[in-house]
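Q: Start with the shorter request: fold the first protein.
A: Done. Sequence, then structure:
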Amino acid sequence: MSVNPLAPSWLRHPDDANALATNVWSHNATRSVDGELLIAGLRASEIVASYGTPVYVVDEADVRARARGIRAAFDEAFAAIGSSARVYYAGKAFLSTRVAAWMIEDGLNIDVCSAGEFAVAIAGGAEPARLGLHGNNKSISEIDRAVSAGIGAIVIDSVVEVERVAEAASRHGRVQPVRLRVNSGVHAHTHEYLATAREDQKFGIPLAEVEGVVAQIRGHDSLEFLGLHSHIGSQIFEADGFAEAASRLFDVHARLLEGGPVPELNLGGGFGIAYTAADDALPVDVLATRIAAIVAAAAKTHGVPVPVVAVEPGRAIIGPSTTTLYEVGTIKDVLVSVPEEAVPEALEGLEGQTAIRKYVSIDGGMSDNIRPSLYGADYSARIANRSSDADPALVRVAGKHCESGDIVVHAEYLPGDIAPGDLLAVPATGAYGWAMASNYNYLARPPVVAVAEGRARLLVRGETEADLLSRDAGLDAE
């Protein structure tokens, strides 16, 4: 075994560089007898022959099973403490009309953050009452459209929105249910969380101002106050951050009950998933049980009834279901000096020496997955069109854009014989891949395809050069 000193400490040298880590890949991703990647029974090469590369491939049964699993886990956990839960799919992760239909059919509500997401959810068959509208800067027209349609809840994010929503509801003869987003001062990420007196961010109302804003809400006959809303972060692997947030929120929740009903508490989403084999996300049933216990304990401490709890997972539902397929283009072996801080204790003495990092360039990049460039996010990869017995080599998967930071996979071990023309699969790309895609360098955004039982169907049509040119007003006829 040859461990490359340029590899990050979390990346293990694999016994088999073809193996698919079960915690990372969709449930129906396997290898065929001849070594090709299969997703829901369909060969990677067949998908590419029909739709080209890059292409996002959604394992339909996987995403729907995760949606039902989260709903069932929270239903069961909160029934056990004498309450109930509402699960909203966070549409910002990825939304299409068909995905919206899946979520509604599988018993979830949908959280939307813009007029566009609202329109997609409605076009997918969602009743407005099954939707919640989020956002720190909802326009007057967005508020009016949501209220007039009969949206189930609006999350008020600032004082000015109280009057805007109340006026719209009064004009349309409605009593609009609303939640109030609270800036709890708790921020969580993976296994760590930070609790401060006040967070410096654009979302929500500071805890100290909540009671005054709720009094304003209750002063309007056209508004119904549902409860507080909190979102503490993303990629959360533990329940500690939720415990701290719940403790802070229940302090206010209990006082608000003195002035009227507070039937709900929304704890947001941010449930983590595995992007690499080293990631250790909590099973959803364990997370739901722990959150329910946290809520029950906080309610008991404050001597108040357990509220209905709402949660808003997005990544945890759609993220692991999707794999992006690319074609490999150029490959370069780059000789790199080993920095001292990169050398683990077991490899001491290698600092200052050189090692090879293999750059594998693909026909996509930051235009279809911005997260590695934007957040430094780590992903995994595997050769998709074949398996190989070649010794593993440390690779960095790079995109084709004119940016040195255009990286899709920072570090991975792949068979050393990876070659131009191979298909490369990057798993767990369902959340914020297509949703944050761009046309940088005038690359067309890829299609999104759902696969189930050996068949594929288009969810979102891929763009063409004609689509890009159609928006260029310089080509309009005089």
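Q: Next, the second protein, separately.
A: Sequence, then structure:
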Amino acid sequence: MNAVFVGRALAPEAERNARVTSWALETFHSRLGLVIQRLANRPFLVGDQFTAADISVSYALLLGLRTSNYTPASVERAYLARTTTRSAYARAMEICQATKAWAEGSPTL
């Protein structure tokens, strides 16, 4: 999702939406299918416990949502609700006020 955001929003105008940006978005959606499969019958990617994998995937999903490059469906929305309502997430957002402010001004779940 980082490459999609850069390719669509930060690259020079003449380079926006280059083939590599489309490829990055296609790759994101391909991997998203795997995430959705994993979440079909478990609350987190590895099972019942939150792991570093959930941090990584949540970041990508939230970046896509907050930059309007991706709209989560119900499975992903429920997953993001689980990951972002954790007390550790709230503490992290309090520590980084710039990220908190950016998130509050972005599209939400």
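Q: Describe the second briefly.
A: The domain at 2-104 is CATH 1.20.1050.10 (Glutathione S-transferase Yfyf (Class Pi); Chain A, domain 2). The mean pLDDT is 92.
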